[in-house]
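Below is how a single chain appears once it has passed through the pipeline. First comes the sequence as given, then the structure the pipeline wrote out for it. We keep one example in the README because the format questions we get most often are answered faster by looking than by reading.
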Amino acid sequence: MALVPYDENLLLALSKLHQTSAEFNLANHGIRLIVLCMFLEMGKVDLKGKRSIELGAGTGLVGIIAALLGASLTITDREPALEFLASNVHENIPPSQQGAVRVSELTWGENLHLYPTDSYDLILGAEIFYLEETFPALLQTLKHLSSENTVVLLSCQIRYERDEHFLVELRRRFSVQEGHYESQRDIYRAVKNTTNTEL
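Resulting structure:
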């Protein structure tokens, strides 16, 4: 999931990861980015040429950042989000990189045969586990898409006890390394899958 090394005194830019999102002044506008985008932007993960997939992309921000940083990416979400997602990708990925990005429908746990097993170096997901009824399908999807060498980066905020249960189930299936955790705000900054263990 996302491994975020954090030391409040290390760098000013890194201290922005102390929050669930960070605000920047870009093009004379205040822009808020989620932590996983910040983590990728810092170059802590080599994205060049990595076969990657983003789950539950929503607007596609994380996938767009990953693609701009060199990943060969499939950006996924459920069917109702695809038109908006494809439009965002088209508007934000330069023509020279459009061929390295694909927008595709993926409902967790369904039609996984369309996504080859063991074919991804990197799986991305930002704030994707919040509905308890989706947890089994999400875990099944993560398992299907990953291999021993796949790195899974998830950025999440633990809001409820059910979210903690998801992390317990995740640990049963993957070797998990947690990043920064703020107990006062109940925020995990990251988790990293280093090896995929058998069920």
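The beta strands are 21-26, 29-34, 51-54, 72-77, 101-105, 122-126, 151-157, 174-178, 181-182, 187-196.

See the next section for the split statistics.
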